[in-house]
Amino acid sequence: MADRLIAGGPAPDFTLDDQSGAPVSLSDFAGRRVLVYFYPKADTPGCTAQACGLRDVLGDIGDTAVVGISPDVPAKQAKFDQKYHLGFPLLSDTDHAVAEAFAVWVQKSMYGRTYMGVERSAFLVDRDGTLAEVWYKIAPKDTPRFLVESVGS
To answer: Is 47 a catalytic residue?
Structure first.
């Protein structure tokens, strides 16, 4: 697993397909702040609360972009977006290469079973591509609050 990222360091660039199958790169947002957040699975309770919370603060974060990433395929991301009218890119990281680059692909355990999966985390990338904020193991309800506190309007 990659070392944990730290604020002040460079954000790993990536290109992944969004919910409509179009490629989206981190570098597409050069000159803007962007929240890159990782979530385990579309349309599950925690992930829905997190995504809807972010949707609800879009008007409070100025020109900061929001990008969600999970291992789900684009079709599942599209259903998630349409169901909750999210209005921001949801990227498909099926081979978890980007999750690994951000050090959020980790060993997890549930009911005594261990498996690899996404650790819910968020990264605020500054206009120049450096990491302004790094939040590993973030709670769904904290993601929009921390974002608003960090960027204001």
So the answer is: yes
